[in-house]
Specification:
Elements (H helix, E strand, L loop, with lengths): L2 E10 L15 E11 L8 E10 L10 E5 L1 H13 L2
Antiparallel strand pairs: 1-2, 2-3, 3-4
Length: 87
């Protein structure tokens, strides 16, 4: 089974919470790594996301400690959608 990791940056304009986190995270840009699996048995290459990790703290935050926390894809999508709906 072939697995790859892709990276993206997500932006939250307001503090946000994700399940499993002790506290709300501040607004800002966060790097997210997606683990993707190659889907076998089709005539062209296709990848399916199977996991995600968010890097804490936000990119612009000065901190000597950084963490990479596993998150559920649906939780991240819901948090981003909620953030976009806020005024």
């Amino acid at each position: 089974m072939t697995i790859r990791t892709t990276q993206t940056v997500v932006r939250f304009s307001s503090p946000f919470r994700l399940p499993g986190f002790d506290m709300a995270q501040p607004a800002g840009e966060y790097r997210v790594d997606y683990d993707e699996e190659l889907i076998d048995g089709i005539s062209r290459l296709a990848w399916q996301r199977v996991g995600a990790f968010i890097h804490l703290p936000a990119i612009a935050t000065q901190s000597s400690t950084q963490q990479m926390m596993p998150i559920h894809l649906s939780d991240l999508e819901n948090a981003l959608e909620k953030d976009q709906k806020q005024p």
